[in-house]
Amino acid sequence: MNNQFPITKIIDDDGTLLDTSYEEQLTEALSYHLYHHMYRIRTFDRKAISLQRQGRIGTYPPFEGQEAAQVGSAYALGEDDWVFPTYRDHGATLTFGADMTRMFMYWNGRVEGCVPPEGKRIFPAAVPIATQIPHAVGAAWAEKKKGTDNIALVYFGDGATSEGDFHEGLNFAGVFQTPTVFFNQNNGYAISVPFEKQTNSATIAQKAIAYDIPSVRIDGNDCFAVYFTTKEAIDAARKGKGPTLIEAVTWRTGAHTTADDPSKYRPEHLGTDTVDPLERLERFMKTYGHWNDEKIAEIEQTCQAEVETAVEQMENASQPNVDDMFNHVFAELPDHLANQKLAYEAFLKEES
Amino acid sequence: MPVMSYIQAVTTALKEEMQRDENVFILGEDVGKKGGVFRATDGLYDEFGDARVLDTPLAESAIAGVGIGAAMYGKRPVAEMQFADFIMPAVNQIISEAARIRYRSNNDWTCPITIRAPYGGGVHGALYHSQSVEAVFANQPGLKIVMPSTPYDVKGLLKAAIRDNDPVLFFEHKRAYRLLKGDVPEEDYVLPIGKADVKREGTDITVITYGLCVNFALQAAEKLAEEGIDAHILDLRTIYPLDQEAIIEAAKKTGKVLLVTEDNKEGSIIGEVAAIISEHCLFDLDAPIQRLAGPDIPAMPYAPTMEKFFMINPDKVEKAMRDLAEF
After folding, report:
1. Do residue A325 and residue B301 have CB atoms under 8 angstroms apart?
2. What CATH number should be reported for the domain holding residue B113?
3. How many angstroms away from the CA of B192 is the closest CA of chain A?
4. Is residue B170 included in any domain, yes or no?
5. Of A146, A223, A274, A317, which sits most exposed with the smallest number of CB within 10 A?
């Protein structure tokens, strides 16, 4: 099958504007907002890797290289929309409004990390692959039933498109015309398996044809392409025009997780021609006179201070308490668990 | 005799079986070029090529289902589930198909597939990388479930699983992979599936367990021996179907039985072991049957302090053994 889905871009690798129809919308303010979010989540991501190396948090899946895909899409969401992330989408959820301290706590093994700020509609990150995709269809269906114009956006990777849940979710969304945006980050690799061995399809976007769902394939490292494409899909969903599948082609610069070593399976020259999404925006901003060194320095300092504060708060958080293990299995604690809890308390006293 | 780790025994058994029988092949996520996320299939892609070591799409139901189809055709697939936690999309294929093919075809078809999966906690793997899922499958006639406790047993039992003419789930404890080392003969050998194994002879109390907990019980038994408590330890090896005769013999031997599993307590396989003992050994018992298991919470916590609360360890086993001995 020929590739019917060429990659669309708004700016080029060197930062020049390719699609002039967006010229007026690529404002200095938008550029700064996107740069700020991308720099912020990159600072978080690099800090998290460093904390893992020092044994201060657990195994961590980095998203470096995918900042434009995550920020551009999350920034397009409305306040009351729903987000369904995977374990690698904390850049997106941070952009949407997740709390950074809690995010560090999550990666330090604390379930509190799954709790979004009051009113923020962020599902707990899915670790089993593709399981969150039908959920996003269910929530979107419920919003439609309720008569709101809220939508659900679900993140997933290239590997997830091989799972049944992806196909079942897309088909459902097509049948019920749910306001769901399926946001795929095709980062080239599902752990060690390259995209061309994951599927015989030339693109992920074309998989939507089977379900008669509109789809589009974009340059996931072009934050403007991501932002405007996602916004258009969201707007369509809000207006009752049903779901859209977006394939954002990007690149996982680092390892699958801090427990992985990509040099074992990924040729080192791959990805070297991919222009870093932050650098690409910087080139655009410089070309169009939006770049102000002082303003940028201020953004960078703000982000670094925020990350340091969040780490401090995570490390100063009180230790988990044994009760946390038992209290949220059911709405009410059954007798046998109450007894197990007592036994553990006794065990702990003996230990101490 | 070479000393190897538990995971090296996995790799060795796979390699030797692939050399012995060209019908044996491996399929799973990241099993090829990467050699598996734990490196259980390390070197096999280089030796046998991509026709016999298949890096599959990320699709557990298809890994099991394609494997089942190939097994019914006459191949000997060894499917890997990257983590036991992620076997869930494949449950329909394993239970509805693999376990029932021989029966529903009036013995005309067979399904000699082996499905390997690392299970268990103690590695800061958190909720989705620490679970024990054997009880999900342990009431499905037609399936066999093997959970080895030593490198020696791994090699002999994995070879037996691959050669078995019925589907076998082979759960490997991921903490045991590099923690446990032991003598493994170079020669080809198989160990019987469906038979338990006495890992320590003793006269005072009986511990019945499987997987990594066998090692914990052995460590505890050595300490208790210094106090004059002599423990008898039975390793189930195959947890479905159970070796009833060995269980009854081990329970009768001392009259005091401790059952240990890392799984949640309620509904775990040791409940079935307790039922067998109750049915057959009531008048031989000198103490109520004791169970040491994980709490009945959905999953292993990640935070180190809480993970320790959940995991079985040698100290917990030792305390439970001493309490039973003193009963």
Report:
1. yes
2. 3.40.50.970
3. 34
4. yes
5. A146
**Judgement on whether residues B173 and B219 belong to the same structural domain of the protein:** no
| ipTM > 0.85 for the complex | yes
- Residue B115 shares a structural domain with residue B86: yes
> Which residue of A lies nearest to B45 if distances are taken between CA atoms?
A265
**Distance, CA of A249 to CA of A90 (rounded, Å):** 18
**Same structural domain, A347 and A283:** no
Give just the sign of the alpha carbon dihedral A229, A235, A241, A244: positive
Residue of A325, A326, A336, A342 best to disrupt the B interface, most CBs of B under 10 A: A325
Q: Does one domain contain both B106 and B211? A: no
Counting Cβ atoms within 10 Å, is residue B220 exposed (0-12), middle (13-18) or buried (19+)?
buried
What token pair was written down for A223?
């934050």
Question: pLDDT tens for residues A73-128?
Answer: 999 999 999 999 999 999 999 999 999 999 999 999 888 899 999 999 999 999 99
Out of A58, A191, A260, closest to residue B29 by CB: A191
User: Which residues of A belong to the active site?
Assistant: 252, 256, 265
Listed in sequence order, the DSSP H helices in B112-243 are: 134-137, 151-163, 176-179, 212-226
If one counts the domains in chain A, the total is 2
**Closest CA in chain A for residue B293:** A340
- Shared domain for B22 and B112, answered yes or no, is yes
- How do strand B197-200 and strand B231-235 relate by DSSP bridges? antiparallel
At CA B33, angle to CA B32 and CA B34, rounded to 5? 95
Question: Which chain B residue has the Cα nearest residue A348?
Answer: B309
> Using an 8 Å Cβ cutoff, are B131 and B263 in contact?
no
Question: Who among A192, A324, A329 is closest to B33 (CB)?
Answer: A192
Residues B45, B172, single domain; the answer is yes
Domain that holds residue A336: 321-352
Note whether B89 contacts A164, CB cutoff 8 Å.
Answer: yes
- A260: tokens are 């992985």
CB contact under 8 A, A128 and B88: yes
For residue A1, is pLDDT > 80?
no
Rounded to 10 deg, the angle between the A100-107 and A28-53 helix axes is 30
SS3 A38: helix
Average pLDDT over every residue of B275-288 = 97
Is B188 domain-assigned?
A: no
Statement to judge: residues B176 and B213 lie in one domain: no
pLDDT per residue as tens digits for the range A161-175: 999 999 999 999 999
What is the β-pairing status of strands A82-84 and A189-190? unpaired
Same-domain pairing of A279 and A142: yes
CB contact under 8 A, B295 and A109: no
